[in-house]
Amino acid sequence: MTQAPSSASAVKPIIEVRGLGKNFVLKRSVFSRPLVQIRAVDNVTLSLMPGETLAIVGESGCGKSTLGRLLMRLIKPSTGEVFIDGQNVTNISHAEMRQQRRHVQLIFQDPYASLNPRMTIAQTIAEPLMLHNIVPAGQRAKRVAELLEMVGLRPEQANRYPHEFSGGQRQRVVIARALAPEPKAIICDEAVSALDVSIQAQILNLLKDLQNRLGLAFVFISHDLGVVKHIADRVAVMYLGKVVEIGASDEIFSAPRHPYTRALLSAIPVAAPPSHQRSRAARLHGDLPSPLSPPQGCRLHTRCPHARPECKTVSMKLDVEASGHANACAFWRDLPAQDGTEGVREPRNPKLEKLFVAFEAMAARSAQTVKGG
Amino acid sequence: MSTSQNILHAPSARSVRADDAVPSVLDVSNLRVVFEGDTRTVTAVDGVSFSVKKGRTLAIVGESGSGKSVTSLALMRLLPEHTARVSGNVNFDGRQLLTEPTSTMRSLRGNRLAMIFQEPMTSLNPSYTVGEQIKEVILRHRQMSKKEAAERTIAMLRLVRIPSPETRYHQYPHNLSGGMRQRVMIAMALACDPELLIADEPTTALDVTIQAQVLELMRELQQKTGTAIVLITHDLGVVAESCDDVIVMYAGQVVEQCSVEELFTFPQHPYTVGLLGSLPRLDEKRERLAAITGTVPDMANPPAGCRFQARCPFRINKCAEMPALMEVSQSHFSRCWRAPMEDLVP
């Protein structure tokens, strides 16, 4: 797979954040003193190594998109520090930040809204080349053609407008634009959520191919754990602005520690025959509490199936294991063991697996004949 | 029960009636919806037939543009009459829904036929309390005093497990969370004990933990009331967890029809195989997903023959001819010349 951050001493993280927090002020007094604040992101520390994919998952309102914007320093953190490529960018000027942005690019959920309808896709993709003065004007058209090919579009489509493309193709254009300034990392904020499953798979495959080819790092923000499982090396799970669990993807999916992670996993509907559905692990009850006044103590205690009286007062400090896996449940060692691993079993019919293999093999063969002819 | 005139669609009608004696609530045969624009004509739904039985849930699954939502709107007669030409037979309890006068449809909708949409915020009126909106439905269709209707409204809110329903009755939609709004929609839809509930992507806008709660609630209420449900979704996981029968739609046509158990055990149409294969799975990590190449055909001029052929790895010369929806095994239908798929496995 990708280079694990094992030789951490030699390899520097591309993005590193320490004690990051962001407050949004909802209401001010007459003297513009903040009266009501919302802690969208609260004391988050993490790092992104070259070539790795870090996923940030959580439900709506958990602060994952705000965290994504903080990682790029599109917004200024209220507390904590952001390092991009070793440089502290927390307080640098706007002009300097623009230079830095070349290294970290962003892809949004809605490819319809993130392309300018009045620009051809060639103009759109050439814009970062021009802004950062990466490629001399004479060679830009050639570079745009290369980028289009890289994302699986035909160079002759360069002079078309966004409305002439389907959703999946537009997302490819957005990816080409993000690749144009030769970034080291791309932050994908729900980049495949708006796409149909079959198109979603195409884009996920493309992102993986690009990562293998260019050694890119991804921060993959998503609410879809199936997608995350497929693409991520490490996963951070957020709830109400806090990271509640962070660790290697395999660990998160095979042995989730935190009750919230377990509940998220067991809530995903699985495409398996009803006779083979897994047993329901303990589910969360109720709704997300208002982020304006998050519960005291552990923020999950109002919905947690394993809550006990002490949970109202415990702190949500991350308990870091030797492997680096960390979670914020104070009592995770006492939780029933089986309900974590039960959550992800998906039995399949062996005959059906063979059919999938046949489907893929035939698809690959026909793709080759198309290219050859 | 209407018998289908079209030989192509006869088997589908038989399939759902053959096995047991549960009466079907809704019979749709050969439904076609054509949108006529100034410059082009689009056949959004092309000869769709199915039945829904009492107490069962039928899933209509497909990707965007496959015609699944248009099918449901056509059943409810909610498509604009001046642009959409709807033909075929929709039999609901002995009535032909497509030919009923508008006044009859109005007294059926919300009463015996109910519908839930994807986005609960746009389906609720922001300037009335949720209690008033549910009460309005009850007063329109039932002979009840306002007081009785208000009591029934609170009972309905309690039924869909809204905490402190007496307080929530007087609140506005913006006071409620997304999951709670969708529960209000369900309470409103079920207020008059409908025989048929059409739910168009009811959980798509919700988070997974809330989605699980809402689906479980719908399941439970169905067991209590025996309502037949048509659940329209693009999420195969939702189909597997909460439905009994399923039709898979592609480019306006039914390409596969069977029980949910059979669909996930062994699908019989290449499109379904591709869809299942392209789902990222939780229990294993594959290097690449089996994506279906290409995109859906332009519905203004669909290709001759099988509509999936351009994206199908199993295509043969015969695919230039349109296959019928054929019975592959006992009440399992597929619109594919290569079915049964068992023959394609080495």
Automatic annotation (TrEMBL), chain A:
The organism's place on the tree of life at top rank: Bacteria
Q: Which PROSITE patterns match?
A: ABC_TRANSPORTER_1, ABC_TRANSPORTER_2
Q: Cite a single GO MF annotation.
A: ATP binding
BP GO terms, sorted: peptide transport; transmembrane transport
Q: What UniProt keywords apply to this chain's record, in alphabetical order?
A: ATP-binding, Nucleotide-binding, Transport
Start and end residues of each ABC transporter domain: 25-265
Compartments, as annotated in UniProt: Cell inner membrane
Transport found in the keyword field: yes
Coiled coil as a keyword of this entry, yes or no, is no
For this protein, the record's InterPro entries field holds: AAA+_ATPase (IPR003593), ABC_transp_ATP-bind (IPR050319), ABC_transporter-like_ATP-bd (IPR003439), ABC_transporter-like_CS (IPR017871), Oligopep_ABC_C (IPR013563), P-loop_NTPase (IPR027417)
Topological relation to the membrane, as annotated = Peripheral membrane protein
- Recorded GO CC terms: plasma membrane
Q: Record's family?
A: Belongs to the ABC transporter superfamily.
- The name of this protein is Dipeptide ABC transporter ATP-binding protein
TrEMBL record, chain B:
List this protein's GO terms for biological process: peptide transport; transmembrane transport
Give the Gene Ontology MF terms in alphabetical order.
Answer: ATP binding; ATP hydrolysis activity
Q: Which GO terms describe its cellular component?
A: plasma membrane
> How does the record say this protein sits in the membrane?
Peripheral membrane protein
Keywords of this entry = ATP-binding, Cell membrane, Membrane, Nucleotide-binding, Transport
Q: Which residues form the ABC transporter domain?
A: 26-276
Matches recorded under SMART domains: AAA
List membrane-spanning regions. Answer: none
Q: Where in the cell is it found?
A: Cell inner membrane
Q: What PANTHER family is this protein classified in? A: DIPEPTIDE TRANSPORT ATP-BINDING PROTEIN DPPD, OLIGOPEPTIDE TRANSPORT ATP-BINDING PROTEIN APPD
The family classification in the record reads: Belongs to the ABC transporter superfamily.
Q: What is this protein called?
A: ABC transporter ATP-binding protein
Query: Whose protein is this, by species?
Result: Microvirga alba
